[in-house]
Design a protein that fits this description.
The chain is α/β, with parallel strands linked by helices. It has ten helices and ten strands. Bound molecules: NADP nicotinamide-adenine-dinucleotide phosphate. NADP nicotinamide-adenine-dinucleotide phosphate binds near residues 195, 234 and 268.
């Protein structure tokens, strides 16, 4: 388990990823993205999660450049959007993301959603970029078990992560177990369910017990399960709060109590229906 904001977890290709990072969905491309990313890195964040769909890659790249850390020490994730999928399209989309970010490689590139009839070709293009060293690791997002099984039929490389919606209302038991078995790390998007799980009684009483905030209880629950987590905040105080989770530990029973809040409720679409 990670013990600090800089601690990393080993992926199945030997590359290490920080166990907690900053998500930047709905962080606007203007100065906000650059300011947010710079502030986060200067606070010690070493993982930034963006996507071409978020339309803020220019600001993210600027923030990384302005921050007090070397590019090599910051782990940058981006994603190929649904309309950009297919072999040639993915190669082009990757080039565009790289240009916008003003970088010469990506640490991790993900298939944003499993677009039927497209994602296998998208994966082939990502394997090519990976073999050329343009991307250090490749992975997927919003893949159910059956999408992964289908991908494996033609894949030469295994995804290193599967980034899925994951929070106390959606504990993703099936795909989590499958990914654990296949040595694919699960990464939690909307770990705070965009604020909709912070008032759950169980979470509030654990927050009181440990003198922590509800958000800190949930993010601690993530890391104790070895789930990489990427809460989004543009607020300096909440960014800090979200990483101040290394001075307490939940018991196994408490982790299970939070698991029991599962009610199969999503903030985003089901990958089978999007
Ligand atoms: N792969 C995918 O399909 C996919 C889909 C969605 C998201 N993602 C990724 O996952 C990241 C996180 O998900 P998300 O942005 O949807 O939701 P989230 O991280 O669960 O929640 C973000 C919301 O919670 C607030 N917040 C943050 N820290 C807080 C705290 N300590 N206390 C109270 N409120 C707090 C934020 O407001 P403030 O900014 O005002 O603090 C924001 O409104 C995204 O930014 C993106 O990088 C990926």
């Amino acid at each position: 388990m990670i013990n600090s904001l800089q601690d990393r977890i080993q992926l199945n290709n030997g590359i290490n990823i920080p166990g907690i990072g900053l998500g930047v969905y709905k962080v606007w491309e203007d100065q906000e993205a650059a300011d947010t990313v710079r502030t986060a890195i200067n606070q010690g964040y070493r993982l930034i999660d963006t996507a071409s769909f978020y339309d803020n890659e220019v600001g993210v790249g600027q923030g990384v450049q302005e921050a007090d850390a070397n590019r090599e020490d910051v782990f940058i994730t981006s994603k190929v959007w649904n309309e950009e999928q297919g072999y040639d399209e993915t190669l082009r989309a990757f080039e565009q993301s790289l240009q916008k970010l003003n970088m010469d490689y990506l640490d991790l590139y993900l298939i944003h959603w499993p677009v039927t009839g497209k994602y296998e070709d998208t994966w082939k293009a990502m394997e090519r970029l990976y073999s050329e060293g343009m991307i250090k690791s490749i992975g997927v997002s919003n893949f159910h078990k059956h999408h992964l099984e289908k991908l494996f039929v033609k894949a030469n490389e295994k995804p290193v992560v599967n980034q899925v919606e994951f929070h106390p209302h959606l504990i993703q038991r099936e795909v989590k177990q499958y990914c654990e078995r296949e040595d694919i790390k699960l990464e939690a998007w909307s770990p705070l369910k965009r604020g909709q799980v912070l008032e759950e009684d169980v979470i509030v009483s654990l927050a009181e017990k440990y003198q922590k905030t509800p958000a800190q209880i949930i993010l601690r629950w993530d890391i104790e399960q070895e789930v990489i987590t990427i809460p989004k905040s543009t607020n300096e105080k909440r960014m800090k709060e979200n990483t101040d989770i290394f001075d307490f530990q939940l018991t196994k029973e408490e982790v299970e109590t939070i698991n029991n809040l599962h009610c199969d409720s999503r903030t985003g679409p089901n990958p089978d229906e999007f």
